[in-house]
Amino acid sequence: MRHFLASNAQVFQRLEVIEHHQLELAAHQADTDHRIEEVFQLLDAGQQPAQGIFFDGQIFDAYTFVSDLIRSAKKSIVLFDWCAPRAC
User: Fold this and answer.
1) Residue 29 lies inside a defined structural domain of this protein
2) Cα dihedral 23, 29, 33, 35 in deg (nearest 10)
3) What is the pTM of this model?
């Protein structure tokens, strides 16, 4: 038994890493599902979400959203350009 454990230690270590990544992925997926549900609830209630969600090719939709957002400003607008560290 000791020989089996010693000779397959790398396999067990890889299994632990895979399990850890699966747990992280499940937590991230639950958070994403919650955020998507919030957006759908806002859309069902007829409210406009504070952030737009657009897919590749939806240039007009994004432009319309931003234009409406700018027009709805009462006093001033502050724009931030942010990108994820790996995407920059």
Assistant:
1) yes
2) 100
3) 0.38
